[in-house]
């Protein structure tokens, strides 16, 4: 009886080990797939409070765009300028968002810069490499 119990525990441990391995494997695959869809927001520092990209316009955007809802709605979006305008008009029409006045083009610049279409002008290809460390090939004598 004691032995059976031990076997069961070992089998369970083995199973959990395999489950954990496959789980971490699939999440690896997923993160490498999304890596090709990176945007500028991935490579800049984030505001710890909202997760929004740190930028000279952060406070403006934070003040105007996180008053009613979580910044997550922005973080999960990737819109072109036209689509951002459309979203803002929709919020103004149906959600009582105020007229953004002179701030609007500044906010739009920020939104498109960091939360624009992830592929940008690169048509689904990865972004150009930023910091390449070249190394010298040693000739093998
Ligand atoms: C007056 C309140 C208010 C303000 C201010 C506001 N929003 Fe919204 N926004 C809303 C509401 C309400 C929704 C709908 C939320 C939901 O669906 O749960 C929304 C939804 C959104 C969505 C999701 C829309 C979609 O269809 O995916 C985005 C993105 C968004 N807002 C961005 C912004 C940005 C950027 C700003 C700053 C310019 C902003 N919001 C300011 C009220 C506001």
From TrEMBL:
SUPFAM superfamilies xrefs: Cytochrome c
Annotated keywords: Signal
Region forming the signal peptide: 1-19
InterPro entries according to UniProt: Cyt_c-like_dom_sf
Source organism superkingdom: Bacteria
GO molecular function: electron transfer activity; heme binding
Protein's recorded name: Cytochrome C
């Amino acid at each position: 009886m004691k032995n059976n119990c031990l076997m069961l525990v070992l089998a369970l441990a083995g199973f959990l080990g395999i489950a954990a391995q496959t789980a971490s494997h699939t999440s690896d695959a997923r993160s490498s797939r999304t890596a090709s869809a990176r945007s500028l927001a991935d490579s800049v520092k984030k505001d710890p409070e909202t997760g929004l990209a740190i930028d000279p316009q952060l406070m403006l955007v934070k003040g105007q765009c996180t008053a009613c809802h979580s910044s997550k709605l922005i973080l999960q979006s990737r819109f072109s300028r036209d689509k951002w305008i459309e979203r803002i008009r929709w919020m103004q029409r149906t959600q009582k968002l105020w007229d953004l006045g002179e701030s609007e083009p500044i906010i739009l610049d920020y939104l498109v810069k960091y939360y624009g279409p992830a592929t940008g002008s690169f048509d689904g290809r990865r972004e150009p490499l930023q910091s390449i460390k070249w190394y010298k090939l040693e000739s093998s004598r």
